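hiii so my PI (J.) wants the whole complex modelled not just the main chain, which honestly fair. so below is everything: two entries, each one labled with what it is. i double checked the lines twice but i was tired so who knows lol
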Amino acid sequence: MNDIDAPLREPLSAEALEARLRSIGEQRYHHRHPFQLMLQNGELDRRQVQAWALNRYYYQAMIPHKDASLIARLDDPALRREWRSRLVDHDGEAEGEGGISRWLMLTDGLGLDRDMVVSTRRILPATRFAVDAYIHFVRERSVLEAIASSLTELFSPMVIGQRVSGMLKHYDFVSAETLAYFEPRLTQAPRDADMALDYVTRHARRLDQQQAVLDALIFKCNVLWTQLDALHHAYVAPGHVPPGAWSDKGAADDR
Amino acid sequence: MNDIDAPLREPLSAEALEARLRSIGEQRYHHRHPFQLMLQNGELDRRQVQAWALNRYYYQAMIPHKDASLIARLDDPALRREWRSRLVDHDGEAEGEGGISRWLMLTDGLGLDRDMVVSTRRILPATRFAVDAYIHFVRERSVLEAIASSLTELFSPMVIGQRVSGMLKHYDFVSAETLAYFEPRLTQAPRDADMALDYVTRHARRLDQQQAVLDALIFKCNVLWTQLDALHHAYVAPGHVPPGAWSDKGAADDR
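here's the output for the full assembly
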């Protein structure tokens, strides 16, 4: 059993809790996933990058639902205001702005039909199940756990940098414009993560609260890891695209 | 696009609706899944059969939650009584009886530690996400869709027969006693499926209702298929066990 899987025996200081959260990220965040490494090392073909962008769109599209569910549960107007910035980041101030629109610039650039992407009907069922698990988690668990589950953003800058530089270097079908999604995330994610980390270390003082926070971050790492597992199984290993998913041989509309 | 994925254009007769449901099962049910074929053809090793039984335990354990959620939403006492038989099948009349207990005879027989199995803490995250998606579906969708999502039982007898005979033939670590779960299912599943099919064909008359019923069965086939995809990726392809799951090399308590 990994250290990070062992139950806590006594409450940790704020510093020790943060260290343990960072250790979970080091071991469980998807920067270690084989599919992520293949993506940034130029080992995927165009179809595989398309499949990644298509499926990840569903995650991007559901993030504002997740954040709005959380805001709906917060009693403190100041905290609601802070969290509201995430809605702005993803939905923008006007049509064509925000993270979801920028993600569609990527899927456009990869030659995927925008209506097919937005419909989400050709994503892997495993993508939908994992993302929906995150939505349900934020709706149903405590506010502390819901906020803690966002702490994967502590680790996203390290993967975004490598992903963008690796994709630009290796793939001639990818341009800086089509990767416009990632640039703002390099400042948004640390701001969001600092705020969530501050909340968590101030509010998780008891043993059971700290355990719940650690488990919430492990859960969220699993949500991300499982999405890449499903992509890897369906589109790297030959012959495993599930029925009805994009690029299934029985299907005809794979734009 | 498969025929079964094309939207309905006009309402079907009850017979045509049933035929279409059966066609979905023929194309999407997990009797076609490579992992299922390997299981019944004796191509898995003991560790892979253990992983299957461990993960499938979570599905078995959650079924009464799913059925109780549905009963809680039914207005008709007669229908609640009929559906209650599913609770009896899975939970039994007394300690040690019912489908969940019989599934634990299988995991016992395969040498898995019962406490570890019952804790479900070493299952694949993808198993949990897929099964929980089914639970949420039954809680949140219409009663008609919830009942339709149970229609995979129409197809289970065909897979149970092959699974039991194949496993007994090929695996010396499996006995008829450890497969006791399956025998009652050969009569329970058709009884349950007939009842659900009767309800669905009587209540789904409008185009939108029939489309929802077909989509519910596709959803449920995806729930089952995704579980086998995750097992296949983690335990057949080498080196893909996700962090923290049973048989992860970083973990020490793999009984």
